[in-house]
Design a protein that fits this description.
Layout (H helix, E strand, L loop, with lengths): L4 E3 L9 E3 L3 E2 L11 H13 L4 E3 L7 H11 L7 E6 L7 H15 L6 E4 L24 H16 L6 E4 L3 H8 L9 E5 L7 H9 L3 E5 L5 H4 L14 H10 L3 H10 L4 E3 L5 H8 L8 H8 L17
Helix pairs in contact: 1-2, 2-3, 3-4, 8-9
């Protein structure tokens, strides 16, 4: 089975393409439990089912299992698209970013990653990072850290350690910090939380205008995790009447409807699941299309906006 891909631009190897559907492997603390044992089993099943993109991070505690599964699969490395992220929980300086990348290579058992991202643009204002503030944090802003980390990623890209580079959780002001420097590469990808309860048309439009591929995580708003947070999300997306009605009319699941809503906006998605049946379902979203009215109905669900992860707007 050949699944759809999209082209990458800017900080990407010429001609590079990214599978539209990937497997997310990041835990949230409640809900599905992920560790290296579980990620190895899930990655093996994903690859067996035909999935070819896997998303991880140094912070997830899943890279060793993913590396083991890829090695055991005997699938040529060139056929598997691996994304990882450095500088969690905030951007690190130049040398520390390189040190984290070496950890990624060792844990994933690979000389290169297909896509390397800066995980977060900084730490939410008004809170103190658990490891304290790094030296690059100056004048109450993370800008210098973002700039140093991006310089490291560019050098890793030029040396062949990453076939493409990008960012995650970056808002327009964070992107501008690294894009405004003469000679800097524009990110190939921006991975951001996005689903019918939380989406940012201005950020999506900005990314499209600069040929930055928008990659959504938590595209179903992590119902396994958010059921423990009813104050934030009293009605989970699987139970939303609008989502359920549209799903019924297409004979699809609520998850497939939410993923199709993203894909029809030319976004790529990272659903996270341990279930083989759900993996199959997540890839089975290319045989139907939502109407303009259905797209508008789903987009209108973000009032009030309800979010799974911290809000990057609060990061300076």
């Amino acid at each position: 089975v050949c699944y759809p891909t999209v082209p990458l631009h800017n900080g990407a190897t010429p001609g590079m393409r990214m599978p539209v559907v990937g497997l997310g492997t990041g835990p949230y603390g409640t809900g599905e439990h992920w560790d290296n044992t579980i990620s190895e089993k899930a990655t093996a099943e994903w690859l067996e089912l035909g999935g070819r993109r896997i998303d991880t991070s140094t912070s997830y505690g899943t890279q060793i299992g993913i590396g083991n599964a890829i090695a055991a699969s005997k699938i040529p490395r060139s056929e598997i698209f691996v994304t990882s992220k450095i500088a969690q929980p905030y951007p690190l300086d130049y040398n520390s970013s390189f040190a984290q990348f070496k950890q990624i290579q060792e844990q994933l058992q690979t000389d290169y990653v297909d896509l390397l991202l800066i995980h977060w643009p900084g730490w939410v204002k008004g809170t103190t990072p658990r490891d304290g503030f790094p030296p690059c944090y100056e004048n109450d802003t993370w800008k210098k850290c973002r700039v140093e980390a991006w310089k490291a990623l560019q050098d890793i890209f030029h040396k062949g350690g990453a076939k493409a580079i990008g960012v995650s959780n970056f808002e327009i002001n964070h992107l501008s910090d690294i894009m405004e420097i003469p000679g800097n590469i524009i990110p190939a990808v921006n991975q951001v939380e996005c689903h019918p309860y939380w989406h940012e048309p201005e950020l999506i439009a900005f990314c499209k205008s600069h040929k930055i591929q928008f990659n959504t995580y938590s595209p179903f708003a992590a119902p396994d995790h958010m059921k423990f947070n009813p104050a934030v999300m009293p009605v989970l997306l699987p139970n939303n009447t609008v989502v359920k009605s549209i799903a019924s009319s297409h004979k699809k699941s609520p998850a497939q409807v939410c993923f199709r809503w993203a894909v029809q906006q030319n976004l790529v998605i990272n659903p996270r699941t341990l279930s083989g049946d759900h993996m199959k379902e997540n890839m089975d979203i290319f045989d139907f299309k939502l109407t303009d009215e259905e797209m508008k109905s789903l987009s209108a669900l973000n009032h009030p906006m309800r979010k799974v992860c911290p809000d990057p707007h609060k990061i300076e």
